Amino acid sequence: MNKKPQIQSYTLGELEAGEPCCIPTPHIEVSNLSVSYHGKTVLDDVSLNVYKGCITALIGPSGCGKTSFLSALNKLSELNANAAVKGSIVYEGTDLLNDTVDVMSLRRKIGMIFQQPNPFPLSIRRNLDLPLREHGIRNQKTRHEKIEKTLKDVGLWDEVKDRLDTSALSLSGGQQQRLCIARALVLEPEILLMDEPCSALDPLSSGVVEDFILRLKGHYTIVIVTHNLAQARRIANYAAFFWMKEKVGKLIEFGQCQHLFDTPKDDLTAAYISGAKG
Question: What mean pLDDT, rounded, does the chain reach?
Answer without folding.
Answer: 89
